[in-house]
Amino acid sequence: MAEIKTAFMLIFNYDSTFEGLLTSVFEAYNRNRFPDAIQAKGRQPESLFAEVVEIDSVTEKADRVWKGIQKKVTKRNSQLLFHAFLSEEEGIEMKILRFVQRLFAEEVNIETDFGDPDVLYLVQTDRKVKREAMRMMQFVRFQQTKDGLYFCGIEPRYDVLPMVITHFRNRFADQQWLMYDLRRNYGAFYNKKSVEEVVLTSQEINRNTGQVNRNVLEESDAFYQTLWKSYFQNISIKERKNLRLQRQHMPRRFWRYLTEKQF
User: How much of the chain exceeds pLDDT 90, in percent?
Assistant: First the structure.
């Protein structure tokens, strides 16, 4: 009887962090075995015939891979893979792995090789994520609570909170603020010295609008919100209203963050 050979699919399970993904890349080279899939821990493998390897994040290993990448890419694309990772798109891990494999294997610059579908996809995704981050910096509004904290609830299409922290830290360096991603249920809290990642359990936030409930607003902030809404209504000229142009520059999904849109 002929021997039956089964080809097992190799899957790396990681903790869904960028550090974990870089550690997975390190392990692939270290073991000289490259996975057929990289997926979040806890997810069931698509194939019954799969060898699953659990990858634990190790900062030193991730740093070695990241430094190696930085030596091979141009300054313009130094954050390309990180931004693409923040898109959370299905299969983004393997696209990044294949890009890194080419990056380390070839002497020529591959960043503009748009004939490679992975390169094209990563560059396009990088642009989309950066555009989303820019809109967050333009359209979000903070509310002051009674305890002096400035709060902003957001729900971005991509996980761009790590990209906008420095902007708001520089802009509001003398204030305590909390920017919270309602979709991913985590936030960045700035205490005038450092930024910490936090998870909220409070019921004082309207998860649909991202607004703090009015009973916890500082009185002057509630007053100025009302004043701003009135001002916005009065300067609006109905005959010159162009909703199509307005949505082009300020997509409707961002309206929930704007005080002037909370009528």
Answer: 57
CA atoms within 13 A on the CB side of 67: 6
Q: What is the tens place of the pLDDT at every residue in 139-178? A: 888 888 877 888 888 889 999 999 999 999 999 999 999 8
Contact 26, 52 (CB under 8 A): no
Query: Helices (DSSP H) in the chain: which residue ranges?
Result: 18-31, 59-72, 80-86, 92-105, 117-139, 161-171, 219-235, 243-249
Measured between alpha carbons, how far is 256 from 113 in angstroms, rounded to an integer? 40
Q: What counts of helices (H) and strands (E) characterise the chain? A: 8, 8
What is the pTM assigned to this prediction? 0.78
Find where tokens 């902003």 sit.
Answer: 152
Task: Classify 152 as helix, strand or coil.
Answer: strand
Sheet holding 37-40, edge to edge: 37-40, 9-14, 50-54
